[in-house]
Amino acid sequence: MSTSNQTSNHNEIKQWAKERGGVPARVKGTGNGEDAGILRIHFPEHSEHNDDLEEISWEDFFEEFEENKLDFLFQEKKSDGEQSTFHKFIQRK
Fold first, then answer.
1. Into how many domains does the chain fold?
2. What's phi and psi for 90, nearest 5 deg?
3. Where are stretches of biased composition, namely Basic and acidic residues (predicted)?
4. How far apart are CA 81 and CA 72, in angstroms?
5. Are 7 and 15 in contact (CB under 8 A)?
6. Domain range holding 75?
7. Residue 10, number of CB atoms within 10 A of its CB
8. What is the pLDDT of residue 83?
9. Cβ contacts of residue 42 below 8 Å, gap of 6+?
10. One digit per residue, pLDDT tens: the chain, 93 residues?
11. Can you state the percent helix, strand and coil of the chain, rounding each to 5?
């Protein structure tokens, strides 16, 4: 059985992404000026279609993350024991 974890800790999020080859990104065409837009963690090695994502700095990523009061919901391993890249952003309670 796989379980999910939830955090707003920047170092924990960066470490989780780094271990999986993930980089901070936003959906192209979203946001403007100071607004980074719709956030994503992008896994270039696992994606053939990345035309809709644009890599951004961790600084810009976490600025938007905090402004929108988000938490990071993520999975360490799939039910078969393999490393998981499942994640999503949810509103902080």
1. 1
2. -130, 160
3. 11-21
4. 21
5. no
6. 4-91
7. 14
8. 93
9. 22, 23, 24, 25, 50, 53, 55
10. 568 899 999 999 999 999 999 999 998 877 776 676 789 999 987 666 667 888 999 999 999 999 999 999 999 999 999 999 999 999 998
11. 25, 35, 40
Structure token digits, residue 33: 């000026």
Q: Check: CB of residue 38 under 8 Å from CB of residue 53.
A: no
Q: Do 70 and 92 touch, CB atoms closer than 8 A?
A: yes
Does residue 12 contact residue 44 with C-beta atoms inside 8 Å?
no
Alpha carbon distance 85, 74 (integer Å): 8
The DSSP 8-state label assigned to residue 92 in this structure reads -
User: What is the DSSP code string of 15-57?
Assistant: HHHHHTT-EEEEETT--BTTB--SEEEE-GGG-S--TTEEE--
